[in-house]
Design brief:
The structure is a homodimer of 336-residue chains. The first copy, chain A, has 336 residues and is α+β, with helices and mostly antiparallel strands. Helix content of chain A is 30%, strand content 23%. Chain A has 10 helices and 13 strands. Chain A has helices at residues 5-8, 10-19, 65-81, 103-119, 169-178, 185-192, 200-206, 219-230, 245-254, 258-264; strands spanning 27-29, 36-39, 44-53, 86-96, 122-130, 135-143, 160-164, 211-214, 233-236, 271-275, 286-292, 300-302, 305-306. In chain A, a hairpin with a 2-residue loop joins strand 12 and strand 13 (305-306). Chain A is globular and about 60 Å long. Strand 2 (36-39) of chain A pairs antiparallel with strand 3 of chain B. Chains A, B: Catalyzes the ATP-dependent phosphorylation of thiamine-monophosphate (TMP) to form thiamine-pyrophosphate (TPP), the active form of vitamin B1. Chains A, B: Substrate binds at residues 57, 267, 312. Chains A, B: ATP binds at residues 126-127, 152, 216. Chains A, B: Mg(2+) 5 binds at residue 217.
């Protein structure tokens, strides 16, 4: 496809975008009407929304449109999974400049579609408008399949803390990219295209998880949300947290403690949950800490002591080169 | 509240926004977790999304933040109603500059909340990020209550075309505003704050509507979407379309045929539907035309003849001072 978004025109662009969509049996009415209709067999629907801006959440010189689509879908679908639900659908609100090559939004849609397919969901609708800054607003929907939603608020003292998925890979990839490198590829790819363990969310609900979230702001920060909502303290055991050799090597090369990436790096969308102490967890879950009664210590500690850098307020100025810019995190119902 | 969004900080702003929300019994889990949970008793959920940009869809010197909130919610909730569903929830994706007064997003939220209350819905979640252009991305959800969704595709030759709600009021108000006036207030208010007849959507479904949409791009354009999807022609009878005296007076004052506003003006979010010819419609519905077999004529005619200006492609340059800028209209599942 040649030309710009402006040359293609609104209706031409919408045709191109919708032609790329693969429906699932859950989609009763897809794009093209006033609204979409998606099955919600549980009689409850789980919904979350996020906004990504060019320059703030992605860079076109670092990520292809396809990667941005994969990532935008992934971070929203991970929010659905982190409630214990199975993702069913996403809707796309898209702002594009008229001079943008028309391939950018169509490749974005390819990425959205493919990530949806990984999670078992489908793109069901959207809106496209012209504006100065590329903006990708995603809303994801999901179904609980008769499970009770797992919130951040149910962790109990005595519970274990367990995680599944990748930790610190995206942050390490970001550190590499900010220094002008494009490798090691595995980490750069992890930054461009996270791989949330979608299946683990509903599985954790079935295993009796008492609290759950996906790791989007960083493990310590996101566990802080659980600790806050559950009114508990969480202590992590650094000895139980694996750092891959290759990540250590990057840390040495760039002069950063890789534990920083693992504990503070977000955007990998690992799933972290608390479980009753007698739970039998499948092998892909790793117990990394325990839930304690609240104390004078910070809500999340590592080896019983405060961990320095835990948190991200992107309206403030606490960002640094080790931490990629992120969207508003714990926004109402739309936390990452 | 004093200060800017930047001074308030991300978490402070989120606190302010969520404190303004009024939940309904349909909200099982509201703001503050990875995702919201909303009841969907019908086992299907209706979903639509729209994006509004400052400068393109609203102007801060013409509309208060409260009005923008009312309007943003209204246009999305109207999409839900136009499927025959009852609105249940909206999610907000919000981009705000750091230097924006903090009262702007909080008053926006007040507007969203109040419009949701009119429709019986609630704000259940969102995301807030910092950026240059104020952007309001809304996703609305709804429940069909065992009705079948009414799409744009079911109109049959012989059906009557009926409308309920306001037509041309927003466009007349826009014409007034573009000329530097602030009155007549009723029309300016209609532009700032549409009043979609939400109840009429599910009611029309119950009355056996064969096709339905809300009027967001203009009556002729939106009926064109029905005609296209239903593969029919629609003929409107100009004698059946009332023009209020006050609107005629404005037309005379500014030199515009008010029929232009009624037939091409969008954003009032009236609901237009087709019904079998023997339908008994309540008094608030007005029959304005009929559904015919397709012919060589345009898909929508007025008194059997083509009507000049029908359509809006906001990526193109067909806007003029009589037509307010609008968002992408018939976007997949997110048509206005």
């Amino acid at each position: 496809m040649k030309g710009t978004v402006g040359e293609l025109g609104e209706f031409g662009l919408i045709r191109e975008l919708t032609s790329r969509i693969t429906p699932t049996p859950a989609v009763r009415i897809g794009p093209g009407d006033d609204a979409a209709v998606v099955t919600a067999p549980d009689r409850r629907v789980v919904a979350s929304t996020d906004i990504l801006l060019e320059g703030r959440h992605f860079r076109r010189d670092w990520s292809t449109a396809y990667d941005v689509g994969r990532k935008a879908a992934a971070q929203n679908l991970a929010d659905i999974a982190a409630m214990g639900a199975v993702p069913t659908a996403i809707l796309l609100g898209l702002v594009v400049p008229a001079e943008l090559p028309a391939t950018w939004p169509t490749e974005l849609m390819d990425g959205l579609r493919d990530e949806c397919q990984v999670a078992g969901a489908a793109v069901v609708g959207g809106d496209v408008v012209r504006g100065d800054t590329i903006t990708v607003a995603i809303t994801a929907l999901g179904d609980l399949r008769n499970a009770e939603p797992v919130t951040r608020g149910g962790a109990q003292p005595g519970d274990v803390v367990a995680v599944t998925g990748w930790l610190g890979w995206s942050a390490a990839g970001y550190a590499v990219l900010t220094r002008g490198f494009r490798s090691p590829r595995a980490f750069v790819e992890a930054h461009r295209r996270p791989e949330p363990p979608y299946h683990a969310g509903p599985a954790a609900a079935g295993l009796g998880a008492t609290a759950m979230t996906d790791v989007s702001d960083g493990l310590v920060a996101d566990l802080g949300h659980i600790a806050e909502a559950s009114k508990v303290r969480i202590d992590l055991a650094s000895t139980k947290i694996d750092i891959p050799t290759q990540m250590s090597d990057i840390g040495t090369a760039v002069g950063v403690d890789p534990m920083q990436w693992v504990l503070n790096g977000g955007e990998d969308h690992a799933i972290v949950a608390t479980f009753p102490p007698d739970v039998k967890l499948p092998a892909r879950w790793k117990v990394i800490g325990e839930v304690l009664h609240p104390s004078a210590l910070p809500q999340v500690t590592v080896d019983g002591a405060p961990w320095a850098r835990a948190g991200w307020d992107h309206f403030g100025d606490n960002g640094d080169a080790e931490s990629p810019p992120r969207g508003g995190s714990v926004a109402p119902g739309g936390g990452r």
